[in-house]
Request: fold
Amino acid sequence: MSQPADRPIIAEFVDVHRHYVMGKNVVKALNGVSMQVKKGDYLAIMGRSGSGKSTMLNILGALDRPTTGEYRVGGRDVSGLDDNALSDVRGREIGFIFQSFNLIPQLTVLENLEVPLFYQGRVGKESRAKAEYLAERVGLGKRLEHRPLELSGGQQQRVAIARALMNDPLFLLADEATGNLDSNTEQEILNLFDDLRPDGVTIVVVTHNPKVAERADHTLWLKDGQVEKLVDNRLAGTAHGGHP
Amino acid sequence: MIGDSMRMVKLGLKSLMLHKLRSCLTTAGILFGVASVIAMLAVGEGASAETLKQYRDMGVTNVLLRSQKPEETQSSSSSSMMSTLSYGLFYQEADRIQNLLPQATVVRVREFLRPVMRGENWGQSMILGTEVNFLEVTNMKVHEGRWLTDLDLQRQANVCVLGERLSRMLFPLENPIGKTILVGIEDRFEVIGVLDYQGRAASPNGTTLDQCAFIPMSSSRRRFGDTVRNPLINRWEQVELHEIKVKLPSTEEVEGAAAVLEAMLARDEVHRSKKDTEVTVPLELLRKAEATERMFNLVLAVIASISLLVGGIGIMNVMLATVTERTREIGIRRALGAKKKHIVQQFLVEAGVLSALGGLVGVGLGVLVPYFIEHYFKQPTDIQAPHVVLAFGISAVVGVVFGLYPAWRAANMDPVEALRHE
Reply:
């Protein structure tokens, strides 16, 4: 462990269930998941399709609410919040990175970067300065006035990462962030994640790609809506569980 | 706050630019709606303003009794070719009217055309033989000199007051007051006054007051008599009075007075058989014309609403397509912290921009069209600022109203579903 053990918990699942009603059947996508993400963590969530990965991502991203159980962000239970308040949680506490970059095509890079702050009413000179700083930080250089489609996939994902950092989120939430990239670019993006960590950035990646997962400190394995195991990837090549 | 609004409008424009042709076509729907409303109202106003002005010029508190030539039967016209045709109102009838309506101001008018001349300047002019009250009844002002007096009438003086146009025609350079003009072949009249410019006719006969010369009634009888040759049918006509103007103290009394006068003429054996008189009530005509105008405006409003409704449906259609196309963008924005109200705002602004642009260009076109109509078809038009504001306002409201449902649909998408949308 490189970081002190008393790092604050910034995201926490407490016995989270998420059930979907499909006709007469109840699908238990998550069935009692508890876990913690501490500041500075780099956590990968893995599992086969149907394991509850996507559901977990949605709840982590405050896009969905647990059926029962608690989801705490920064110590506050957000599982009972209404749509408005959840939007605020997404806008202030979470930095999304998507598989297909999800930049808004008609906006320039700068405008894309400013979107999260726009909804906080914080667009202005400072947001521009911050966008310039972050563009530099993620290795975009001076391409602020370009349109997304004028950039390569890797550059687009860098824009998305910068955008996710604009609101100083508690953690980055990446959904198959390298799924649309070739393996070289994938390595670049994963290296960028590593680069960001000294800044105190917390990263949660949801993936089915072991190569991506093994770059994280820990891997949380899901199976049938439950935590199968938590693996510390830093203990060379072994797969024994246990909390860090 | 203003910065944010500007940003939203800019963003809206950017999004609309994604589909230029589609946005333009949708805008055209509103554009033509707004333009046609403004143009139609301008043409309608122009036409009715003319009529309304004509009635107002006659005086809304006046009732006009006019002599009119009776319709002749075939036999009577051929048999009496050489005889004098006698018809119309009599001098004494003015006194009877004054007795019947003591509150009214009654004034007699004789009209006849005569050449008038001053040096080398001459022309055919309408000569009105009238009385002192004429000035008050027709609501005119003397520009220079004075009006006719009772003394002028008693003395049967050869004095005249000129309308503004006539004065300018006869006296292009000199001051007319005190000068003499020749009326007809041998009668000289001294100019005692010139009237203010009026730009209107006081009677349905259509000659504007500015082109008339006014002389004392008594002088007109003495100099020109009651018998006039009508050059059109080559006959002598004897008419004592061409018009009796009756001015009431207020508009409320007009209707009653008109009824009294109608009854008076109907009781008269001669007038009833000849049908040689006519009662004109400008107020009544004005009200009828106003009612017609209101009806016309109502029909226009309905047509306008329908055309803007069609435009609005176009906007809704396009916005629904836009919302579906941009489902993913909506998902992204929601994931980045947009609340439902932000999404509603975004699409309402887009719909609003779409229709406001249409409205703006529509206003431009709507102002141009009447201009061309006036220029090329010589049809009077009248663009009124409230109509322009109204048409533009409605277009903006249409955009917002018809944008509401698509925006509401966009805002209520499940963010998870929206993000998954391809």
The two ends of chain B are 34 Å apart (CA to CA). The longest strand of chain B covers residues 105-118. Residues 265 and 271 of chain B are 6 Å apart (CA to CA).
